[in-house]
Amino acid sequence: ISIDKLERYTQELDQLITVLPTDLPKLFVIWPDRFIHDVSLPVLKKRAEERGFTVVDLYEHFGNDFEVLSWDYTHPNGNALRDASVPVIEALRGLGVGVGLGLGENNEDR
Q1: I need a surface site. Which of 23, 39, 80, 101 has the fewest CB within 10 A?
Q2: What sign for the dihedral angle of Cα 102, 103, 105, 110?
Q3: Are 76 and 84 in contact (CB under 8 A)?
Q4: What are the C-alpha distances in Å from 76 to residues 69, 70, 103?
Q5: Dihedral through CA 41, CA 46, CA 48, CA 54, nearest 10?
Q6: Cβ atoms within 10 A of the Cβ of 3, count?
Q7: What are the pLDDT digits (tens) for 52-98?
Q8: Which residues, 6 or more positions from 34, have their beta carbon under 8 angstroms from its beta carbon?
Q9: Rounded Cα–Cα distance for residues 84 and 79 (Å)
Q10: What would the DSSP string read from start to end of the chain?
Q11: Over the Cα atoms of the chain, what is R_g?
């Protein structure tokens, strides 16, 4: 991601938080996209955290390799989405979200 795109993304994130309720737990999920973002990823994570988001970096979960739909080779398939739900649900629970959402212990509801 170029610095210009990162700056624009940060501005859009700033606009988003102006419309979110201040007491709403904020989760920022980063999905791998088959590119390596050594420079921009730490900056993006820091900026999201500075704005009150809990960051779930799925690069940490998948690396840069996840199962995709067989017909487009880009979008995650059902297995990848199920696998991604584990750290996302854990983060939501850490934020106190999930009660009554069918998110059972040990993610057995997946």
Answers
A1: 23
A2: positive
A3: yes
A4: 6, 9, 21
A5: 100
A6: 10
A7: 999 999 988 887 778 888 888 778 899 999 999 999 999 999 998 87
A8: 64, 74
A9: 9
A10: --HHHHHHHHHHHHHHHHHS-TTS-EEEEE---SS--TTHHHHHHHHHHHTTEEEEEHHHHHTT---B-TTTSSSB-HHHHHHHHHHHHHHHHHTT--TTTT--GGGTT-
A11: 15
- Least confident stretch, 1-15, 39-53, 56-70, 95-109: 95-109
> In the numeric block, which tokens belong to residue 101?
């959402």
Give the pair of three-digit tokens for residue 76.
């995650």
The closest alpha carbon to 66, from 84, 80, 56, 78, belongs to 80
- Token pair 């900056």 is found at 43
Cβ atoms of 97 and 104 within 8 Å: the answer is: no
Q: What is the reported pTM?
A: 0.78
Which two three-digit tokens encode residue 15? 């606009």
Q: Which residues of 19-50 are buried (b: 16+ CB within 10 A; e: fewer)?
A: eeeeeeebbbebebeeeebeebbebbbebbee
